[in-house]
Amino acid sequence: MSRLLALLTIPAVLGMAALPSLATPPGADGQVEPERKSTFEQNGVALMRVVATDQAQIDQLNALGVDLTEYSKPVPGGIEVHAVLSPPESTALREMGFDVRDAIADQTDHAENVADRAAAIASAEAAEADTDTLTVLRAEWFTSLDGNRFLSFEVKSSATDAQTVLTASWDTGRDTPPASGGTATMTRFSDAGQYMYHRFSAPLALNTPQPARVTFTSNRGGTAKAPVTKWLGKPRPAPGPHYLTDFIDRYMDPTEITERIESLSEEFPKITQIIDLPYLTNGYRRKAQAQFGSAADNTLYVTTRAWGHEGGNDTTVSMIDPGAANRPLTVLVSGRTVVVSLATDGAGAVTSTAAQVVAALNGEPASSALLTASTYRGNAGAGVVRPVATSRLSDNLQAPAHISREPFQTKALRIGRARDGSKPGVYLFCQQHAREWVTPITCLETAERLVRNYELDTKTRNLVNGLDIFVVPVINPDGAHYSMYDFNGQRKNLTNHCDAVWSDPAQRNAWGVDLNRNQDVGSLFDGYSGASSSCTSGSYAGPSEQSEPEAKNEDWLVETFPNIKFSMNTHSYGGYFMWAPGAYKSAGREVLPRPDYGTENYFWNASTKILSAVQAWRGTAIWPGRTGPVTDVLYSAAGNSADAHWYNHDIIAWNFEVGADVWDPATNRWQPVGFQPDFAEGHQEAMEFANGQIAILEVAKQYAADQTRPTSELLVKGKGAGTTTFTFKVDEPANIYYTLDGSEPTTASAKLGFAGYREGAEQITISARTTVRWFSVDISGNVEAAQERVLNVPRA
After folding, report:
1. Annotated active-site positions, please?
2. What is the pTM of this model?
3. Residues 697, 616: one domain?
4. 51 and 147: one domain?
5. Are residues 40 and 81 in the same domain?
6. Could you tell me the CA-to-CA distances from 651 to 555, 605, 701, 769 in Å, in that order?
7. pLDDT tens for each residue of 684-733
8. 315 in Cβ contact with 338 (< 8 Å)
């Protein structure tokens, strides 16, 4: 028996150190989620999270005989450890003052794991009987920074179990032995519990001549070969000799950024204008607060009704010992000074509890007009309050005085010679997430290049004359100010939707809404994964879809200007280039509808041009494995902006993640750069991704100028006994509509789809003589004349 079990019936008191800064966040209803229920197997034992204030508390847990795992991780407010506990043990530890949180796993998980294991074994045994089929999805080499070369392969096996092992072997050029370049085992990649394909977890450094072919082999017996092609690096024409770049010399806050785009509009009125987005933000402002107490049960906090800059910061609260026996609890208010005289007993000892003081402050009209009071995170507040000398409340905001505390007027810079909706629109927006400091200077650099090169560079002039460009460098100004001056890790905006239980001062860095989870397509409220209903979560989706003014501004812009056909939401970091779909439901990995075959190919085709432009600045290559739909290369992001643009408005919507990993040849490792790299690195990222944004404008200009019909052909892929298999090939990204009964095809006819995820065009099999009729339509709406071909089939 552990010492803890022996102590379960003995009252124990544990002195608490500093209060933890975080606790279990509330659920969708804003309330603390109940402790996870376990089955009664093994007495309901579960693996529980425990946050110790310091190493001394961990030592106390060990001394009590608590079954601690080897897991330990620093977290805000202490050190997270994991313990195997029964419900009585969890209760006892909480009563002793330990911060025991939710269950990581319990016997229900065990039963599910056992069932999953049995199913996996059965699947593996069934698979072992057959040779698997390998489908090569990608086989590429590329250069990145300083000419370093890398390999990136993706292969799908028909055997999806975890026992399937794939190996890649590559040569050193044409007519060289198959494995002369090297051999490496690939990593199985699964998402939401589903097998996707095998790959290298990171591109593999290539120290031999470029390979011509690669051979993949499976321990199941499957094999496949493929040519190794070059990724990116298509030569781009050098800009003209007078082309200007590099207008950024520091990280900038939203006030500076906004002033810069306003000055650009004033300087270049013929080709620009400022658009005031209609929804003002909450503002860089907070209510003033103070917290009193030393333990959860005797702690309370107060919050002013006025914003800090509007008088809240001038409020003071005192908790005094009257110094006499048998005194009642009283609250006195003079102006913004609140004095709480605590109650005493016959011996003169203070008896007022936290709950009683809270009730007194909220019940006294003079004090309740100034502030509200709450116990600590829903605690009953039965502990006796300690006297406290005068405490001045504060909104704890650190930005200099010139940063306005009022609701912020977000602005868009519209660039174009003809700003009347007659030209295709492109929407470039940045800093949706506050801590991503490189992104706003990327948007600003792009705007500067466009207006300052208009008279100097023919290509720039063609872009500005042929497009309607909307640049919003800062979508989230309040959060960005907070990130720069208060808490650099701030991701969300500053709107606090938490109730009193989760609004104590120590939670102030956790308030806000993730603006890239607040849109109305594939959202948390629709059942999609990748967002949270907890108001303190980093991915909090908000109380409802488009609850936030910042999200409403995004939607207003594309609703008001329906000529917008392209958009780019620039984030950091990691080096990604992505598009829809961006969300799925984890159960069964139910993904939002994928773009059709022609549109998906358009996304891929444009990526080559755009990412080659990024690479042209200093050689950075966005990895092939970090290029593609959001759900395929990153994760599910319920309620994101790109999905809202694509599914609601048919906008070709991309996402950048600037800040690609940097290869360190000394360690042979890829090094991440973070949200706020030193400015030397941040500057380079802004320059190269401004290149990418300019390339997006070039793609849009090509779309506007495209009047050429696509050309397609039917390709017979194979013949068997009584069957013929065929597909179509087209000279540019386009959709193909076809019929098999000799009728005239229309856009309501069957449309060519995918063979599978990243597997190219589907193949169609017929079993009788067939007249196939078809035509293609490209992304610009150019329509090919209908074609016809009669296919025969061999005799069975």
Report:
1. 657
2. 0.83
3. yes
4. no
5. yes
6. 12, 16, 15, 41
7. 999 999 999 999 999 999 999 999 999 999 999 999 999 999 999 999 99
8. yes
